[in-house]
Design brief:
- The protein is of the alpha/beta class.
- It folds into 2 domains: about 140 residues, Aspartate Aminotransferase, domain 1, CATH 3.90.1150.10; about 260 residues, 3-Layer(aba) Sandwich (Aspartate Aminotransferase, domain 2), CATH 3.40.640.10.
- About 35% of the residues lie in helices and about 15% in strands.
- The chain is built from 13 helices and 18 strands.
- A hairpin with a 2-residue loop joins strand 8 and strand 9.
- Helix 1 packs antiparallel against helix 8.
């Protein structure tokens, strides 16, 4: 047995392999340079072109770009009308921005447990939580204790695997709820529903969907995000919110003394995406399919390599879903190992494999512990899964050697810690 690098042995790799990374080529660089040479660096034609292309790609009527995925979430929460009298159900296993957008609107996040199969928000747990804690009065779900209204649900397509949104949408229709898909992981994924494959973001089962274009996501704009919707009213609110709450549209002005006139009608933000970023996004979008195919190929290598290892639990794609494989999150079967996830994490880092943990449950962050600005159901699955999960490297530019190094390092570390 090879000595672990953690214990002074030779690492599998000489240099650190990151868990995720952007894929940039000359076409991307030329696209950005051409925009830098143009008349518009921001509020120009590239932004609208990018939005139109994204809307067509996912099959939605409208798309509104933002400066980040977090800003897109904030915009969606604002457009949905979330406020201090509202409670919003979401998953605890996500990046903090998923719940923070609820707090930005002074509403209350309600964390409900995940399912163990794909680590998405559990429909069964949500349904049970609603039945136990809310009463349906005057076409609204009202919390029996807080007397606040349940206004919406924000499911996350964890790691790129779609949530069973059709079920949540039926629940939303029944109880007058707003569904915002946090699809930051899920660009290019799809769900089978209503007799056909539905691209994530087409909003067939939601009111809005958000995507992130951070460098580790499927396509990147450097930093950036977007909201898609089929609702014209929401679209108008989103456009105005990202521009300080200001409008020049004559249809919305209270007073119109001339073409110079504009009005700030509510408190918005400067959340605009630049034309430079949009130009990069347009170029990246042309390669989105090839990026996804490369991810799928890497995943197939991982699954083949680890499918018979009883120390590891692999993610599985449901028959009704096509995952975009944003990240490859495995669960350690700790009953077959003589250590913890944390030590295996350190051992893999020592082998120069840039593993990660997605995610620390949101309610465990110091701000949430200190302020307790949330409600929560029983978190049995979340608590158990958090101790087991570890993210292996996955991005389109990984070479065959990179993939083999990950496999070799994982097998080396698991073999050392395996119970005999």
């Amino acid at each position: 047995m090879d000595k672990l690098a953690l214990h002074g042995g030779t690492p599998v790799r000489d240099t650190m392999l990151p868990y995720g990374k952007q894929s940039i080529d000359e076409q991307d660089i030329d696209s950005v340079i051409n925009t830098l040479k143009s008349d518009f660096l921001t509020t120009g034609p590239k932004v609208k072109e990018f939005e139109d292309k994204i809307a067509r790609f996912v099959g939605a009527k409208y798309a509104v770009s933002f400066s980040s995925g977090t800003a897109a979430l904030h915009g969606a929460a604002f457009a949905a009308g979330f406020g201090k009298e509202h409670e919003i159900i979401t998953t605890p296993l996500s990046f903090a921005a998923t719940a923070n957008c609820i707090l930005y609107q002074q509403a209350t996040p309600v964390f409900v447990d995940i399912n163990k199969n794909n680590l998405n928000l559990s429909y069964k747990s949500v349904f049970s939580y609603i039945k136990q804690n809310y009463v349906f009065l005057n076409n609204n779900l009202v919390n029996k204790k807080t007397k606040k209204r349940l206004k919406g649900i924000i499911p996350v397509h964890f790691a790129g695997h779609p949530v069973r949104l059709d079920k949540f949408y039926r629940l939303a229709k029944k109880y007058n709820l707003i569904i915002i898909e946090d699809a930051a992981h899920a660009f290019g994924s799809s769900l089978y529903g209503w007799g056909k494959w539905q691209p994530t973001g087409n909003c067939s089962f939601s009111h809005m969907a958000i995507f992130s274009f951070h460098p580790v996501k499927h396509i990147t704009t450097g930093e950036g995000g977007i909201v898609t919707t089929n609702n014209r009213h929401l679209y108008n609110y989103l456009c105005q919110f990202r521009t300080h709450g200001i409008t020049r549209n004559p249809d919305f002005l209270n007073n119109n003394p001339g073409p110079w006139h504009y009005e700030m009608q509510f408190l918005g933000n400067n959340y605009r995406l630049s034309d430079i970023s949009a130009a990069l996004g347009i170029s990246q979008l042309r390669k989105s399919y090839s990026f996804l195919q490369k991810r799928v190929k890497i995943v197939s290598h991982y699954i083949k390599a680890f499918s018979n290892d009883k120390a590891i639990i692999l993610p599985k794609e449901k028959k009704w879903a096509r995952s975009s494989w944003h990240i490859f999150v495995v669960r350690l079967n700790l009953k077959n190992l003589k250590t913890t996830r944390d030590e295996i994490f350190q051992a893999l880092l020592a082998e120069n494999i840039g593993v990660n943990v997605h995610y620390i449950p949101i309610y465990k962050h110091p701000y949430y512990v200190r302020q307790k600005p949330y409600l929560a159901g029983i978190m049995d699955t979340t608590e158990r899964v958090f101790k087991e999960i570890i993210t292996l490297p996955l991005y389109p530019d990984m070479t065959e050697k990179d993939v083999n190094d990950v496999i070799k390092a994982v097998k080396k570390v698991l073999e050392f810690y395996r119970k005999k």
